[in-house]
Amino acid sequence: MTTKHTPGPLSVSFGTKWPFEILIINESGGVVYRESLPCHSSKDKNFEEALNCWNFKASEQEEYAAINHRAVADAYLRAAAPDLLEALKRCKFDSLNMTLEDREFCRAAIAKATGEQP
User: Fold this and answer.
1) Which residues of the chain have pLDDT under 70?
2) Counting CB atoms within 10 angstroms of each CB, which of 20, 29, 51, 106 has the fewest?
3) Based on the structure, what is the number of domains in the chain?
4) Three-class SS of residue 11?
C-alpha cells in the first residue's frame, strides 16, 4: 500500500491571536495542518510571549518553553517532509559513494515515508 501524503511545497506560519496556532500551509494558501502551541499563556500575550511562556512561573517557564519550541521545530520538519522524500527518491544510490548499509537505510526511509515494505 502506498500512502498518499500531502504534496509540497509546504510552509510554516503562526497564528497571531490566542490560542496561537502553528500552521502548515500549502502553496495555494490552504491550511493542511494546524496545532495550538502545547503550552500557551493567557489571551493578552503575543505569539513570541506565548512561545516562551513569559507569564508562567519561573520554575516552569524553561520546561514549557522547550515543549513549545520543539512543536515549532517539528512543524518545520513536517513542512519539509515532502521535499526531503523527493530529494531522497532522486538519489542514484548506485552512483553515489555510499556503503551498502547507507543505501539500505535510504531505501528503508523511503519505504517508511510511503507506507511500503522495505
Assistant:
1) 1-3, 41-44, 93-96, 118
2) 29
3) 1
4) strand
